[in-house]
Design goal:
- This protein is mainly alpha-helical.
- It is 53% helix and 6% strand.
- It has 2 domains: 105 residues, Glutaredoxin, CATH 3.40.30; 116 residues, Glutathione S-transferase Yfyf (Class Pi), Chain A, domain 2 (Up-down Bundle), CATH 1.20.1050.10.
- Helix 1 packs parallel to helix 3 and helix 5 crosses helix 6.
- The protein is globular and about 45 Å long.
- The structure holds glutathione.
- Glutathione binds next to helix 1.
Length: 251
Amino acid sequence: MTAPILYGVPFSQPVRAVMWLLFLKRMPFEMVLINPGSSGDNGSRSAAFLEKNPGGTIPCLEEPDTGFSVGEAHAIMTYLANSQGWTDVYPDDYRLRARVDWYLNYHHRNVRDASVGLVAPRIRKDLNIPVAVQDSAKRNLTAALSVLDSGWLKQSQYLAGDQVTLADLAAYVEIGQLQPQFTNVFDLSPFANVQRWLEDMTRVDGHDDVHIVLAELGDISEQAPSMDTIRNANRRALQVLKARQAELQGN
Ligand SMILES: N[C@@H](CCC(=O)N[C@@H](CS)C(=O)NCC(=O)O)C(=O)O
């Protein structure tokens, strides 16, 4: 079987969620860089990319052998888990699986707003995200963190129980990016259970490699990163990805 193609860039949170799953499960894949929002040749809004993902967003996964492609990070992750039999991260017990799906559905317009409210406005000035939208996103995120802290992560070590699932990978790429060691753009200290979970998640295989892009970007709380910093962070992330692929192929 030819390795699947993941379209995206490591800076994208939903792309990172899929990359982390592939790293964790040691599944080889090829990454094809796609510029989010651009209608240029390698853009997510180009005619060729829209054929694969009509929504025009990254990530998108394609199987070269069958021509099958699927968009939306959570659909990609559940597809991979289903097709590969990864029941550790996507349990086959109906109730445990429902908990994972519950979080994956909850994520949108709640935890995902971390990027809209705090990270994208600093990195993607070109998007001109209105202040009112940023403020509303910050309110959504704060409410969601309270829900995770007083509910999900009070009841269990990970979001859907005692082991890491797709829900944790999806949530961490949004919440984890805010921490002081990465962008440092939000105070997570009021949320003790969330902080304990963030710490646990740093020990999940693939965490460091998938977050190298943010470690390289560094603290953006005071100053927006330069184009050079962004380019270097991306370059470093791609080097790490290449090294990981080489290790999997035994080179
Ligand atoms: N719900 C989607 C969100 C994907 C998304 O927002 N991707 C951004 C990059 S982080 C994108 O492709 N933006 C380009 C655009 O909307 O034109 C998912 O989880 O895959």
